Amino acid sequence: MDKVVNCFKNRPDAVARLICFPWAGGGSIHYARWGNVLSSSVEVLAVKLPGRESRAKEPFFENMQQIVDEVISVLLPLLKEKPFALFGHSFGAFTSFAVADALKKIHNMEPVHIFLSGASAPYSETRIKTPKRSDLSDEDFLKWLISIGGTPPELLANPEVLKLFLPALKADLHVVENYRWADGCLSPLFSCPVTCFDGKDDIPHDLQAWKDITSGDFTIKMFHGSHFYLKDSGNEKIILDYITKHLETSEMDYL
After folding, report:
1. What's the chain's Rg over C-alpha atoms?
2. DSSP state, 124?
3. Residues ≥6 apart with Cβ < 8 Å to 160
4. 90 an active-site residue?
5. How far is CA 237 from its chain centroid?
6. In the chain, where are the structural domains located?
7. pLDDT, position 161
């Protein structure tokens, strides 16, 4: 469990659990600290992927199925205990969706809410036509990384740190670039609410296409900022207040 999930604060009496998935190349710390910020009604579990943090010596996953299988095998007993929601930004939005998809189809379970950030739906034309970046040379890859914003300048200026950071980022992008959702969007998978967050200055994402995954409520909330708008403390507070409000009422929907 500790190998795959980072939980800063265990909350056995929490109303619901929030499972958070990292962005490409990212670790679990950013989300795990949400556990210290959110009220006692929500327990935060941040997913740790191979090739980073305490799993730095493990080989990167090569496809989405490996991520889905590991996360579900570890978390399934917990997910059966009480309501849970999923949150993911960018690459994490795709892994959140892939995990939710498998939970529904294989275990007939669904989250009480799915929060998706900074990503087009995997079956949308916008996503399918997105150029592949994981095969770029390091030099071209860095140029693209700088262009989307959000990467700390001190990181980009430090070749040693970059050497550690780039392989994880490229590995995650390889996974998402080769992920195809076979079902398309013919009928809603879920009945739970879905909320999409995004930065107004990021490249445009087809957020509206996510509406097709649910028969429940669908909401889009836009924030000032580019791709990593959610790192802004003001934006983060709004997001966390929104998540808390929705999860604190989730128990009634779950019963």
Report:
1. 17
2. S
3. none
4. yes
5. 18
6. 5-254
7. 77
Find the length of the chain. Answer: 255
pLDDT tens column, 7-32: 999 999 999 999 999 999 999 999 99
Give me the residue label for tokens 């929601």.
85
Nearest Cα to Cα of residue 244 among 15, 60, 11, 49: 15
Catalytic pick among 90, 96, 117, 120: 90
User: Would you state the pLDDT for residue 251?
Assistant: 59
Q: 119, 93 in Cβ contact below 8 A?
A: yes
- Catalytic status, residue 89: no
Query: Contact 194/246 with Cβ under 8 angstroms?
Result: no
pLDDT at 74: 97
Active-site choice (28, 227, 246, 250): 227
Q: Per CATH, which fold does 5-254 belong to?
A: Rossmann fold (3.40.50)
Which parts of the chain have pLDDT scores under 50? 254-255
